[in-house]
Amino acid sequence: MRVAMIGTGYVGLVSGTCFAEFGINVTCIDNDEGKINKLLNGEIPIFEPGLDVLVKRQTAAGRLKFTTDLKEGIAGAKAIFIAVGTPARREDGHADLSYVYQAAKEVAPLLNDYTVIVTKSTVPVGTAREVERIIREENPAAEFDVASNPEFLREGAAIEDFMRPDRVVIGTDSERAQDVMRQVYRPLYINETPIVMVAPETSELIKYASNAFLATKITFINEIANLCEKTGANVQQVSKAMGLDGRIGGKFLHAGPGYGGSCFPKDTLALAQIGIKHNAPQTIVEQVITANKNRQEDMAKRIIAAFDGDVKGKTIGILGVSFKPNTDDVRDAPSLVVVPLLQKAGATVKAYDPEAREQAEKHFQNVAWQNNAYDVADGADALVILTEWNEFRALSLQEIKEKMNQPLLLDFRNIYTDAEVKAKGFRYISIGRQEIRPDECAVLKAAV
Ligand code: UGA
After folding, report:
1. 146 phi and psi angles, rounded to 5 deg
2. 115, 176 contact by CB (below 8 A)
3. Sorting pLDDT into bands at 50, 70 and 90, what band is 438?
4. CB-count exposure of residue 407 (10 Å: 0-12, 13-18, 19+)
5. Residue 31 and residue 107: Cα distance in Å, rounded?
6. pLDDT (0 to 100) of residue 95
7. CA distances from 113 to 41, 76, 78, 82, 142 (A)
8. Is 211 in the pocket of ligand 1 (CB under 6 A)?
9. C-alpha 344: how far from chain center
10. Could you tell me the pTM of the whole model?
11. What is the average pLDDT value for the chain, to the nearest integer?
12. What mean pLDDT comes out for the span 304-330?
């Protein structure tokens, strides 16, 4: 079995490599020569734990190849996956499909035997049908079907998610295409992973609905956390007890500084746009988008409020700038909102992230980058945990305290407990676990 993967971004590279692990011959194609050259030299352009080992193994086994040549890359492929980017258009949040359609146009004249063209990128409802129309128009004689096959990979856990998914969703009306897709996912099929066969439109919507629902769950618990702070309740206990109800489930109920990343922000925006376009407004999702934006800004306000509204001349240390741990991705991360707001309010910012510094440097100015958490603490007036990297979970609070100007820890991921931090003599502000002082509330409203 041979498949081709167009696009060696996050989804394409992880999926292509994992298909090779299934024993399939995979060629990954990208028109970015620099990227392909890197991959040919064994360099991985993204940070994803475990991916380097798999790429090396599959390349050595001859099952995973990389090329810039589309014709060579798709030769003999039973399925051609389109895994190119679909960035949100700046003007309106619509997913930009130009790369997807371009790939379809380029593939069309090169098709020989029966092939399934698979859209793997996250695309609005109707895209698979449009891809089919484009290919048919470009090459009326081509024998092919189009299937939608969205991915549900989490950055940082993508290989595990690919190898042991909760479900595989395949959207096509063609039985012939279904057979090919069953062969592609044969190892999972044998493992009894649920394979959901639906129409392309349904498959496309499943992806958006899943991401939007998870974003809604997070936003819901974040607002409950606000209420916990005002009432003296504890959000971790609320979410744990809620999660024990099997109908609710405990995952994605961790309150924090707001969701970020390359998926939830983009996909919620796109779903809201799809709703408007089809005259079925997704008002809950629209509200989630607004609430999450406010939440990220609110994190900066909380830090400023901790200084009674004035951070001028203060040094704030930031621990973690990626949108979540185990990735170097900073897209739509809370740090992108928090750091500039602190700087605007007159604070000096020091920061450390185990992986994301290089990416973050493209967005930040005048941040004093450090090589570890202790150097960030050195001379800082406050330390803020924005990302729950494992190495921040067991810091020597004693050493941190000795280095700081004043012992103030703002833990926006709730990775410490009130008792342990306060026992070390810190002032501790976390999420949804203690009442905010009434005077802080007033400052909070006024700040920024
Ligand atoms: C998300 C989905 O989880 C994947 O299933 C999907 O395939 C992917 O988007 C995609 O569409 O490609 P990802 O963006 O990698 O994956 O990250 P998540 O682990 O879902 O986290 C997203 C954001 O939510 C992060 O900022 C994280 O800190 C935040 N989050 C997550 C919370 O604040 N609380 C939680 O309980 C869970």
Report:
1. -115, 140
2. no
3. very low
4. buried
5. 13
6. 80
7. 32, 8, 8, 18, 8
8. yes
9. 27
10. 0.93
11. 94
12. 96
CA-closest candidate to residue 121, choices 93, 143, 101 = 101
Q: Is the pLDDT of residue 94 over 90?
A: no
Smallest CA-to-CA distance from 262 within 216, 210, 211 is with: 211
pLDDT band at 47 (very low <50, low <70, confident <90, very high): confident
Nearest-angstrom CA–CA distance, 328 and 57: 23
Q: Distance from the CA of 264 to the center of ligand 1, in angstroms?
A: 7
Pocket test for ligand 1, best of 154, 161, 213, 323 (most atoms within 8 A of CB): 154
Report the pLDDT value the prediction gives residue 89, as an integer from 0 to 100: 78
What is the CB-side half-sphere exposure of residue 292 using CA atoms within 13 A?
27
Q: Is 189 in the pocket of ligand 1 (CB under 6 A)?
A: no
- Band the pLDDT of 447: cuts 50, 70, 90: low
Q: How far apart are CA 230 and CA 233, in angstroms?
A: 8
Look up tokens 């994605």; give the residue: 252
Sign, CA torsion 46/158/52/189:
negative
Give the residue, by CA position, lying nearest to ligand 1 atom 34. 254
